[in-house]
Description:
Helices cover 42% and strands 14% of the residues. By secondary structure, it is α/β, with parallel strands linked by helices. Strand 5 (127-130), helix 6 and strand 6 form a beta-alpha-beta unit. The radius of gyration is 21 Å and the shape is globular. The two termini are 22 Å apart.
Amino acid sequence: MRALNYLELESHLDRSGIGTATAQQRAALSHTDVDVVTSPWRGGHPAVGSLSAAVGRGAFRDYDLAHCNLVGPGSVAVARHATANGIPLVLHSHVTREDFAESFRGSTTVAPFLGRYLKWFYSQADLVLCPSAYTKSVLESYPVDAPIRSMTNGVDTDSLAGFEELREEYRRKYDLSGMVVFAVGNVFERKGLTTFCEVAEATDYDFAWFGPYDTGPHASRTVNRWVANPPANVTFTGWIDDIRGAFGAGDVYLFPTKNENQGIAVLEAMACGKAVVLRDIPVFEEFYTHGHDCLKCDTDAEFRRALDLLSRDPELRRRLGENARETAAEHSLDRVGERLEATYEALLDGRVPDP
């Protein structure tokens, strides 16, 4: 079987969760019998595809199934081509109107219009995949008129190997000491930026947010305000070349996100055996258990108390981290690859895969 696994604007999304999720799909499929192509266009570029179409050879490469990971014009073109030619179409929902809000300047205003577009876009699919049962319920509420199945994004543990060896280097580089509270990923208000900073202001721990932030016209005022004038004990590192350094330097992963479809960095922190403190939101109910593999909080005061508890009780920190590592193992890329391959085979047989 030859499957297209497509992420338009891929070169611009390597620092994003969508880019990571797509890379992990491809890594997972590399251990299966699926032959993966990553561009739908002949010659690997839409301009070359257009020239090919002009001479009667068609713009699109040959593949048996199309799997798109974004929602823009390139993905629309692939969806139309697949529908017109009887090619099974999988659309992966990494984007909802709910998680788009509070990401960029104006995104909250745009989110309702995006929701109407997503309802139309995802409804073209033979199957919509999404990272969680929570996201499935969100899409059903639009409602999306297509079968929807949830499938974890997984976690690439191989890519994290050796993170411990980078601990001292990254703690020195960013002047971190003691129990370091950290986050990983793009700096957005939706991901709990204000809570992260306000909790830091009320504690004596070093806080570090490892990940890029936008200070240009797309950046929200909240991001600009905190990044330009952070609390004295908060470091915004910007982009780092080796994400393993973040998991080496940090001790407690703090993720007070307001909305998430799954949260790959949470699984990465867990795979590294870190104690994790999360906001108690619906998506985390299906994956993680308070007091077993994480601590869940609702308010700034609860976040502070959780950090103080973990500081006083290293044994609790160790136990949560060990249990978290076991939870992350349930999301291995081997399992993701097996499920993706079975999903593709079902669609090629004209069946909707079982939930």
